[in-house]
Amino acid sequence: MLLTFFLFCCVTTATHGFHLQEALDTAKCLALCKNESCRDHCSQPAGRFEPYPRIKEQAGANVTLHCRGMNLLIIKHNPGSYVIQRSVSTSSWGPATVSNGELSTFPNLTSDTLYRYRLYRITQRGFSLAETTDWFSTYAVDYQPTQIEHISLAKIEQESKNVCQLRAEIVFEPVEDRSCNYNILSWAGEHDLINFDLKKTSEFRFSLRDLKCNQNSTLSIQSGNDDFSKLSNATLFTFVTPSCLQIYQNLTVCAPERVKDLRTEYIQKRNDGSYDIAVNWSEPVLQPDNYTLQFVSLQLEPRLLVVPGDAIRAVFINVHVRLQYEINIVAESIGGVSLQSTISGSVDETSVVEPSYREIIVTLSTLAIVAMVFGIICMQRRNKKNKQTNVEYMHFEGSMDSLKKPLKRDYAVDNSATLLPQDKFQLVPQQLKLKGILGSGAYGIVRLASLEDEFGAVTDVAVKMMKDNPSVEDIKNFHQEISIMKSAGQHPNIVSLIGYCTLHDKPLLVVEYCSNGDLQTYLRTIWQNLVNAVFECRTHLKLNMVSVATQIDRTKQEKSVLNHKNTCMIANRLYDIQQDVIKYTENITSADLLNFARQVATGMEFLSSNRVVHRDLAARNVLVRPDRVVKISDFGLSRDIYRENVYRKKGNSKLPLKWMAIEALTHQIYTTYSDVWAFGILLWEIVTLGATPYPSTPTNKILQFLKSGYRMEKPPNCSRELYSIMYSCWNVRPQSRPTFTELKQNLDKLLSNYSENKYLNLCDVLYESDNENNEPSSINAR
């Protein structure tokens, strides 16, 4: 198919505009060619052949419209060599072209115009009778492409010898408008976003490569006009690739399947109030090497059990549970680790198995009978033993069929071996001294605290803790946040994990403390104080101007001299205002602000290299230290959402719409690319000293504006070079946005060529505000 299409393109280019006889000569040359080497000699065949005979046969082309654009038509016909003429409306037939294959492309047409075609099939015996097509129309200039309706998965196959490297072939059906151009967006996770275009497509199908086993992939297809300035609504399609086991059925190359049918029971309550909690699951088709179980509860450190691969049961012994808990389990083999299965619950007193008074009475009666009748003792003992055995197996397995199960499937580990190993992040609660509350959110609070190390040195830290009565999901997210911060590691520009511990049955997350607060508040405070300084100086200026006017009235005879002096006075007074501003801002410069942006880019470069997606990068989630080092915070899974007006509810979640990338708004895709978009918004926040993005745009109109191509304009105090960096982050195509490494390099270039107010002018921010308001604006307005 690709070869015939290539030959057609070459031949059409060479013969476009031929007279009919010349085209027939070219077609005859092609028909007589036995190999590809002679095709190059067919481009100028005029005069080399005798007139080509006409044969009384139908062309049999069966022409249909394959696809179209504003200046393009592609027709489809039965395979073969054809001479094709085109007619516009009712005009005469134009020059002929030669086509070899089953598609013929006609570019450079006029928009919103009807065309029809006349085809002659060429064989070695001659050319056929003409076949005339229906009328086909190009798009109008303002045409809006139509949404496609059907997407299907044609096949999935192994792409290479690598385990679980797959290729999927996708087929879709165009609707009646038959567009030739399509935008494809494919994603299978936070780091596997692919965006590409199909232009002048010869087939309504494409392949997705480098897919992984058991991967949930989603496609978005939009039809577009010739330059993709207009796109249809997206059609979504989701599919799951086969698992490794479905392909190989071998646990030496594949991870085991996910553990199924998790169940729990409380088999005994001890005198100290603790429980033995049993976990059961279904036997898999292929037996793994072992299972690893983790018990998570708000009051306890996580506990671990490892049981053999032939087990279908494990018991957590002597567990103190007063609230909800969660049990996670994975199966392990040489081929890898399965996906995690989870079950959660709470202790139900009625479900705990304890000896009943009735059993005690029966036992005493039995013993009395045994003492009275020696001859029955042996029989009673034998029956009692059988009964106890049956009860034990029935209890653990739930039916008499359990007698067929070997006892070794009931597997427990000594309590001393169940605690997770200590790591360098675990702290002793006595090291912490909690102080005042720094902030409060929907899911927890952050408090200032002092941490004393083993050498007696005391450091201020921030402690994040959950609110009372958290849900199992809250607990799970809290532990996941700890895991993410541990895996992210240490970096000068991220708020790093210091440690964690449990205090009064509550888990605590201890992180670095940045005393200057968040960057948004820091910037807004600078802006507000600068405006106040200008307003105060302007008041003094008006008083001085009155004094100058009085002096002019008293000395009219020296008018010309005074006019000159007054000009100097006014200039000096304005200079005094500038001096006052500079005096206030002597500790913050535009270079400092650019350096803030560079530090954030550096921190995000580190996070993205560790495959951490922030999802909520904004000035409010960047913290400032007194030495002007900024640190990215809240890159874990459980965040405090503390500004209700910034977020829009969707289900149980809240979304920072004005910082979200267009693909996050339309498809809920969060990747490093969407973090880059948010960085562009953050850079705008820095330039404007903490203004709210899209200040004149309602939140519910953001997506509509972005899809129309709207982006925030260049702030008046921002250079074109700096705005270019900002604007590049907002490219509609994620893969066309710069990386954080490139953003850092671009900001480094600006800083290396830095001169005061060259790229970012603080004074322009002040005068813009001064022109808009006669009094200082409130922070809330920003």
TrEMBL record:
One GO CC annotation: plasma membrane
Pfam families to which the protein is assigned, alphabetical: FN3_Tor_3rd, PK_Tyr_Ser-Thr
Keywords annotated in UniProt: ATP-binding, Glycoprotein, Kinase, Membrane, Nucleotide-binding, Signal, Transferase, Transmembrane, Transmembrane helix, Tyrosine-protein kinase
Protein's GO biological process: cell surface receptor protein tyrosine kinase signaling pathway; positive regulation of intracellular signal transduction
Subcellular location, record wording: Membrane
Known EC number: 2.7.10.1
Catalytic activity, as annotated: L-tyrosyl-[protein] + ATP = O-phospho-L-tyrosyl-[protein] + ADP + H(+)
Residue ranges of every copy of the Protein kinase domain listed in the record: 432-751
Membrane topology qualifier: Single-pass type I membrane protein
Top-level EC class as recorded in UniProt: transferase
InterPro entries reported for this sequence: FN3_sf, Kinase-like_dom_sf, Prot_kinase_dom, Protein_kinase_ATP_BS, RTK, Ser-Thr/Tyr_kinase_cat_dom, Tor_FN3_3nd, Tyr_kinase_AS
Residues the entry annotates as binding ATP: K464
Keyword Signal: yes
Keyword Signal: yes
GO molecular function: ATP binding; transmembrane receptor protein tyrosine kinase activity
Leader sequence segment: 1-17
Name of this protein: receptor protein-tyrosine kinase
Source organism of the structure: Cardiocondyla obscurior
Lineage start: Eukaryota, Metazoa, Ecdysozoa, Arthropoda, Hexapoda
